[in-house]
Amino acid sequence: MKTLLLLFLTLVSNTLFAQTENFSSLMAKGKEAYAKSEFVIASNYFEKAVLIIPKSAEAHYYLGYCYSKINSFDGKGLTNSSLPQVLKSSLEFELVNKLSPKYKGKLIVQDPYSKLSSEWGSLAISYIYNNKTDSAIWAFKEGKKRGGFSYFILSVNKSVLDLCDKNAILVTSGDNYIFPLWYLQYVENYRLDVSLVDISLLNTYWYPSFLSNNKKVQFDFPNNVLDSVEYCEWPESTVKVNEFSWVVKPSYENIYLLRGDRLFLSMLRENKFERTIYFSSGFSETDQVGLKAYLTSNILIDKVSINSEEELDFNTFKEKFIQVSQSIEKLNYNSELEMLFAENIRLILLIRISKENKPNQKELFKILDTYFNEKKLPIKSTEIKTYLNELRKEYYKK
């Protein structure tokens, strides 16, 4: 009897080992194919992997990304986003959040929560591009219902819009910024006076015409050539708009100016800085076409200040920052994106504290300890932790 039991346990153990080994092999092959942009092949591997271990959050995460890439590789194909394919990818990311509310596997780019926003946001914009506004609003709401467009993210982006002047142009960069802002404008009709321009989408062939046709912004290129503007050789040059001039360097290989950058400059020339221009946070200097030196911080956004404007005075900063900080109460601690946003907001406050006198620092430290208590919201960055400790030491020395 003992011999039979031992044999049975050995067979079970060997079977489990073989399954685990097979699962690991499928995951490795799937990741290799994904890295080569062979998304259909990769999806086949991950589909087999989840059959072996259905509760593998990482396998479902990668499978969701494969379905997403098959649907729309990048912004160029965004207007052809397919509902059946979005449903497939969405179900995978929803399952990841159910299996592992705080996903601990390897991140490709976005966490599962923010990826849900991108999937349904892409579908919504596809509908808008094809003049199906009601369907777009449904897609945005469906994305929120399934775990995207969280309270915190929408609240922070409401603050971003509130920080903009009337009829401003807000330039963003990437999914994590543009989709929540589009949600607010299309679903909640919030701050429709602000024109949103995503810098990465300017490189696509559909987006500039979309902006122009919908009268969001205008370009000094004629409408009939917007789709044919290409990159060009660009020596470091001075660009002048009205009385304001600045230097624009090549944006690619120190030789060329990319299509998106040419269109952005075209927009600036046509606008003549009559409407206030803002950049959302997270921009690389290359994407700002030489304007970095002319930016003034306005908490979550940077204002293009051609007249060397001062930063917000203390009382205005304090009032606006408290409004921004109130959204921390609804933070999803399981979302890497939301934690990163919260960390960046805290860093903005620390930088302001370093510039103030002691009475003002006292008020700002109170805001810091109220909304960004380290017991609830630990500081992940060693550099930021050290920076905060030095600020407190300096404060108590005075």
Descriptive account of the structure:
This protein has 398 residues and is of the alpha/beta class. The protein has three domains: 15-145, Tetratricopeptide repeat domain (Serine Threonine Protein Phosphatase 5, Tetratricopeptide repeat, Alpha Horseshoe), CATH 1.25.40.10; 151-311, no CATH class; 315-397, no CATH class. Helices cover 55% and strands 9% of the residues. It has helices at 2-35, 39-52, 57-71, 83-99, 112-129, 133-145, 151-162, 175-187, 207-213, 259-271, 314-325, 336-355, 358-371, 382-397; strands at residues 169-172, 195-198, 232-233, 237-241, 244-248, 256-257, 277-280, 295-298, 301-304. α5 (112-129) packs across α8. It is globular and about 60 Å long. Residues 4-18 have low confidence and may be disordered.
Shape: globular
Mean pLDDT: 91
Strand percentage, roughly? 5-15%
Strand tally is 9
Biggest sheet strand line-up: 2-1-7-9-8
Helix content: 40-55%
List the quaternary state of the chains. Answer: single chain
Sheet/helix structural class: alpha/beta
Poorly predicted regions = 4-18
Number of domains: 3
Largest sheet: 5 strands, mixed
Order of helices and strands: HHHHHHHEHEHEEEEHEEEHHHH
